[in-house]
Design brief:
By secondary structure, the chain is mostly helical. It has 9 helices and 3 strands.
């Protein structure tokens, strides 16, 4: 079964960031990108300034196998990235967007991105999460999209899955939707 937290819990995780501090501004932008677009930790650590097309409102994501896709950049996530770039990103010669907040100002690595999620879960008081890394928000994003009525094809495109079978893994969690189509067991009394 996929490992996810509810949409309300995702919002608590995002709200746990202290946006009066550079680290909180950065972490909020990272959490919004992870939760709204279902990005992987490596997508965040490898994200470069030229990956965002501000005029079109899109984000280029390079996934596994060097596949690239342009995703629409949600307004709240784009605003958070702008806030980070304007007010919290330390000066550095590299073109990766997300950097450490303590010198030396190097790009975040994937494990740092997962640590951002883990620390935010703790701040939000979510102790029952089935996992504590960046992938938790990826699964949560897919589950939320499915519950909002998105097709498996759409979810697979956003998550950059090569096979619909991989995306179908997320259908297992939508108990309410599955209950609407379940058939009575042969020989049992009708519902």
């Amino acid at each position: 079964m996929p490992r996810y937290i509810s949409a309300a819990e995702v919002e608590r995780v995002i709200a746990s960031c202290d946006v009066t501090m550079p680290m909180g501004i950065r972490d909020r932008a990272v959490l919004l990108l992870l939760s709204r677009l279902g990005l992987r930790a490596g997508d965040i650590s490898g994200m470069r300034l030229e990956d965002i097309d501000w005029n079109e409102g899109t984000l280029r994501v390079r996934g596994k196998g060097r596949r690239e896709i342009r995703l629409p950049l949600p307004q709240d996530a784009g605003d958070a990235v702008i806030d980070y770039l304007r007010h919290a990103r330390p000066p550095a010669a590299c073109d990766q967007i997300f950097l450490r907040t303590i010198a030396p100002f190097r790009p975040l690595v994937s494990t740092s991105v997962s640590s951002i999620v883990s620390l935010a879960l703790a701040r939000a008081g979510i102790d029952h999460a089935p996992s504590r890394g960046a992938h938790l928000l990826r699964h949560s994003a897919a589950t939320s999209m499915l519950r909002a009525g998105a097709t498996l094809d759409v979810i697979g495109t956003v998550l950059r899955h090569r096979s619909v079978d991989t995306t179908a893994h997320y259908a297992k969690v939508d108990i309410d939707m599955l209950a609407q189509i379940v058939q009575p067991w042969p020989g049992s009394a009708s519902c």
